[in-house]
Structure formats: structure tokens, C-alpha cells
Amino acid sequence: MKVAILGFGTVGKGVYEIIKKANIQTQNLSVSHIFIRKSRERILPQMTPDIDEIVNDDQTDVVVEALGGIEPAHEFILKALNHGKHVITANKAVIAKYLKEFTDAADANNVKFYFEASVGGGIPWIQGLEKALRIDSVNSISGIFNGTSNFILDQMSRNGQSFSEVLSKAQELGYAEADPSADIDGIDVANKLCISADIAYNINIQDRSKLPVFGIRNIKSSDVKFFEKNGYSVKLIGQTHQKGNKFDYVVEPTLFLNHTLEANTPDNYNLISLNGDTIGKLDFFGQGAGMFPTANAVVQDLLDIKEEKDHLKRDFNNEMEYSPELTKNDYLVRSNENVASLFKDYAPSKKDDYLVIHQISTGEMHRIMKSILKVDHAAFMVSLPSNSSLAGDSSISKQEAVA
Ligand code: HSE
Predict the structure, then answer these.
(1) Is the pTM of this model over 0.90?
(2) Which domain holds residue 78?
């Protein structure tokens, strides 16, 4: 089977290297073309800056899109599908936006569109989710979806290093996106969560404007130390729940007691969990970022196509309503401003440098936090597990509260 790779960055190179390995060559996979931009040097004979040469080549069976970003990735994926090529991509940003369009184009052209590497790097998460859905309704998904932010939080906690020191290290290791703000501001998690929710609920999330996303850009070493002193680790979590015809989703820093699986997910690892009605809770753990784990998932898709292993069919046509009220949590907020009155309906109380907010919906919490960030760019918030000792007595009356 002949494969064209679009892009020769972290993922493209990884796929090329794995295909070159002897045991994979016995599977009869070879690289026919590598698309590179005109400005790049042609260091391998297969390299070309001409996408039409690739899609018009009758010998090429599969196109692996590893360019990243939205355009021209979107245009090239459609072009390849419409020229009868199977397409595999690890590009979560483009899939989150165009999953239905790509799936419809693949169906119309009788080819496959597979994207295992887009969520969870090397973890067979999409495959696991699709397998669960053969039997179950999946009514919640939750987890650590971003290797870079996990690496940063883990290193800050283990070595007491500062945020910026650890971010540079994550970039050197090839975990971070070209623009690492996607990793630290939660956008990358949001993309992966949308793809997972689309598959789980068979929906097509298009309006992302209401999706509550808060990243780890503002976390300080002193926050990490305070959480640790109280027996917690902080993780950047993506979470979605479904109830009847409603669903919610949220991306936010969340505390976990030190004995939990989440708290013990190190380095660039991801931990993604689903809840199905007969399987119960199912956890998926592995390296969520990095050249070879991600490329490994791409090559698994290549082998599935070669072996004609079909993935679950979804039409993404279910209509469901996003509800910002579905989930309520306790939160800690750190701000230099006096913001307690904004939370007057949620029994705010003080705990060290933090304001404790009780039982507020995720939608309302993020709406208020957005307004705080306009006056205090360094403000930070973290969601607490239920019944956390840090929340104190959640029955605290409004009179006792600091508002
Ligand atoms: N930047 C991403 C991460 C790469 O750190 O998880 C894998 O999707």
C-alpha cells in the first residue's frame, strides 16, 4: 500500500520513520510522496510541494495529513477524499471543525477517513470509545487530554520549576503545538473533547462559542504548593456529560486527591475515561503526545485500512442541546481583586489566598471568571472534587459568607 504524507514535522517524520522499520515493511507499506511547502528544502526524493501531483497519482492509496492547523489541511483532506484516496489525520483542530464534512465526503467516495491519533496520541482511545458504543450509551467522558499541560503541571509539582521553564522543555520534547497557547489555554483539550463528544453522542458540535474553557496559563508555583499541602494534585481536565437530550462540556483545571489515577498520571501521559451503561467506568492510559506514540496511532489506522478493518459508522446527525447548567461544582478562585460579591449566590468563603465558591454550574462559573479576567489578567480558578475538605462546610449561610 502506497502512502503520501502531507507535512514533515513531528508527526509526519514519525510516520515516515515507523514505515521505514523492517517489520512494518513486511506489511508492504511504502511512502510514495511527502508534501512539503515550497520554501522547504527537498531532503528526500519523495518530497514535492505539489498537492495535485499527489492526489492525481493512481498508485497512492492513502494520504496522511500531518500539516496541522485548519488551512490548507481542510482543503487538502477534501481534495484527497474526492480523488478517491483514504485519508488519515492526527490534526484535532481540523477534525473538531469538519468531522461531519470529512465523514460525508469519505462515504460519498467510498473511502475511509480515520483519525485515531487526533485524541490521546498513542492511546487507542477513539477505537476504545467506538467499541464501547457498539453496546453502550456513553453518558460521560472525562480526562487528561493534553500531554503538554500534564507535563508542565507534573514537572512544576515534582521539581518546583516555574511554568515558563517547563513549557520550553515541553516544546523541546516535541509535545507542544507550534503555537503552545493551544496547549496551555485549553484549546487543544477543547478540540479533543469535541471530537470525543461528537462520536459519543453522534452529534456535530459547530457552535463552540459557549464551550467553557479555562487553561493553566495563570497557574503559579505557589498554587501547586498549596494544593499539594492539602493532599491534591492539579490537572487540566476536559469533561462532558449527557442527560436525555442535553449535554454539557467543560475544560478547566481540577484538583484530584493524591491517591487517584488522575493525580498519578505523569509526564506527557493522558488518562481518558468513559462511562457506559453496561461497561461502567473504563480508563485509557498512555503517552498522549510525542513523535512516536502519535505516529504509532497513525500507522495503526494505515494497517486497519490495509486489513479492511472498518471503524464504527457515525452520521453525526443527532440533535442535542448544550446545557451550561447540567453540572455543578465547588471551585477555588485566586484574584488580586475583591470579587466575592460576584459570587454572592454561591456562599463564597475565604481559604488562605483563595475564595471558595460552592455549587455553581460550570457555565455560570466560567461566565463570571471571564469578567474577572478583564480586570485581573492573572486570576486563576480550579474545580474541586465533590466533598472536598477545601470546600469547607458547603451549607455555609449567605450571612456568614464573605460577600
Ligand atoms: N500538543 C498536544 C499535546 C499533542 O500536548 O497533547 C498531542 O495531541
Answers:
(1) yes
(2) 2-114
